[in-house]
Amino acid sequence: MRLLKVALLALGLTALGQAQGMAESLKSEFHKEEELGAKPVGTGELGTIKSLMADSNVRIIALQILREDMDESLVAPLTAWVQAGHSLWIYDARITPMFGFQPILMKKNQFTNKDEKGKLAGRGLEGVGAVALAVGQSPINTGVGQVSCFLPKVGDEQYGAVNVTADTQPLLRLTYNAPALAAYRREGRGMIVFKPLLWPEALSGDRFQSNLLEFSAGFQVPGPAGTDKIGKPPGPNAEYVQGHPADGTTVAPALVNTTVPEPKNDRVVALPKNTENKDEMDVIGEGTLVGQITNEKLSFETGTSSVKLTRAEVERVELSTAGQLDKVFWRDGHTSTGLLLDKKLEIDINGESRTVEKKLVRKFRWSKEVAQQ
Hints:
By secondary structure, this protein is mostly beta strands. 12% of the residues lie in helices and 35% in strands.
């Protein structure tokens, strides 16, 4: 809960606009808000949708409404508009079956959360805040670790998500196998997105929101640490994708498990003597490996900056378990939290080189003496 409380500071929720918390060097890689063609539609504004769909400058329509406000006669024309190469955003999971998702409604006792209040298109809503993990291989999640989300209360003390089924692609999940708090489907040349409101300045909310806007508007996303441009976004000239919508609404699972059990197959490996001048790497299933980590630089994304980790500046790195952020301990005494982007670590043990997947590493430490060589 400590991470959740830190993340849910008194920060402004973002429904649509680009976040302001990113470093200027990274923010400059994204298009300006007026170039994105994103238009919110709030309560009582459904009558504007047909004119928005006819406007060639509109690339994204954000349906910032609840289920009771929805006009089902708009589903067919909106779907055709998406198929022509545009993007539609939905915020209430109860609307998503009309656009090919399978919603799931959760109770508060099924996930870690904190009571919060938010606004959607000017309407005050009761709800909860929760911390979600960026999952999946979508370019939208580039540079994103965790995101603070606001889930409005809908129905009988319930909170919406969607099942990862049919052609639904997850973006944010409470755990790696939980329902999705944010997800998308490709339909024709366009894209339909289900998403929550966000706290942009907490964790990676700013990067996620900016990536999603950029991609939904038909632009590639800045790569890791802001390098290159990646992805195949929707647009009038995009490849036509035949959608495979999900059917029906499912009931909430008995429990959304928010913990990852510790592995039971670890064996304790005794440290060799005189290891104070060696690097150490704690590996699941193998204990502590002692040698010299040979990665010269590692890429680290905090959500507000992109940095390179070197042995001269960093003492140790603790990698995430059970949905936490990675943590860097610098030699000058300060710490940083974020996401280590490298998927593999290299260590030389008595002349034998080993490659270890990041997901198997709990933490590693660069020795001080090696750092001074």
